[in-house]
Automatic annotation (TrEMBL):
It is an enzyme of class 2 (transferase). InterPro entries: Thi_PPkinase (IPR006282), Thiamin_PyroPKinase_B1-bd (IPR007373), TPK (IPR053149), TPK_catalytic (IPR007371), TPK_catalytic_sf (IPR036759). CDD domains: TPK. Keywords: ATP-binding, Kinase, Nucleotide-binding, Transferase. The keyword Membrane does not apply. Residues 148-213 form the Thiamin pyrophosphokinase thiamin-binding domain. GO terms for biological process: thiamine diphosphate biosynthetic process; thiamine metabolic process. One of its GO terms (molecular function) is ATP binding. The lineage of its organism: Bacteria, Bacillati, Mycoplasmatota, Mollicutes, Mycoplasmataceae. This is Thiamine diphosphokinase. The keyword Cell division does not apply. Its EC number is 2.7.6.2.
């Protein structure tokens, strides 16, 4: 089945920032994973997750009881722990065969959680799934890249492109297909080159070391 290894993670971000999930409801090859308060979003869309993670301090008891009746795998985490619920969910995926991971509910709420979600994939522990992971909300479409030469396709729903260095990066060259180009720029700390744009249907870039999040985004009107 074409999407048998596609996973959708729904984290704790506000429902208002999550795109319409009904477009995926008929795809029965998607495995849904609810992360703590993200189970409220899944409940809103009447989607039953296969797996849930969390200390469940962000959902009402009634929803937790519903999950216990319907969900095949429930991992209740202690409140005090070294890793976030999102990281624990990613740890689970490291043992799965992955085609694609889409993450919803990663933004729009608490700033500390938002930033933690965004930088988590810079951890070398997750590099084997980094290129398969996309963060999506109503304004942003985020992909993650390790060193190499890359061609990225424009998401036609988005207007702008940002290059966020999640680690020190060496020799970033932004090439054909982008409005603003660079040649061998290096950064010793997190930096965001924002408000670039595509000039073609796809754009090329390369870098020699580090981790980059490429953010396609738009303004809400």
């Amino acid at each position: 089945m074409k999407n048998q290894n596609t996973y959708h993670l729904v984290a704790n971000g506000p429902l208002a920032h999550v795109p319409d999930l009904t477009i995926y409801k008929q795809d029965h090859d998607i495995t849904w994973i609810g992360i703590d308060g993200g189970n409220r979003t899944l409940d809103h869309y009447q989607i039953t997750p296969r797996v849930v993670f969390g200390d469940f301090d962000s959902i009402p008891n009634e929803l937790l009881e519903k999950l216990k009746l319907k969900v095949k795998e429930i991992y209740q985490c202690p409140t005090a722990k070294k890793e976030t619920d999102f990281q624990i969910a990613l740890n689970y995926l490291l043992n799965q065969k992955i085609f694609m991971i889409r993450v919803f509910g990663w933004s729009g709420g608490r700033l500390d959680q938002y930033l933690s979600n965004l930088v988590t994939l810079a951890n070398p522990k997750y590099h084997e799934i980094i290129s398969k992971t996309i963060f999506i909300d109503k304004q942003n479409f985020v992909q993650f890249f390790l060193p190499g030469e890359w061609i990225v396709t424009q998401n036609t729903k988005m207007k702008y492109v940002g290059f966020l260095t999640l680690t020190p990066v060496k020799n970033l060259s932004i090439k054909d297909g982008f409005k603003y180009q660079t040649k061998n720029w290096s950064f010793d700390k997190m930096t965001c080159l924002s408000s670039n744009e595509f000039t073609l249907a796809s754009g090329e870039f390369s870098f020699d070391s580090g981790v980059i999040a490429l953010i396609q985004s738009k303004d809400l009107i």
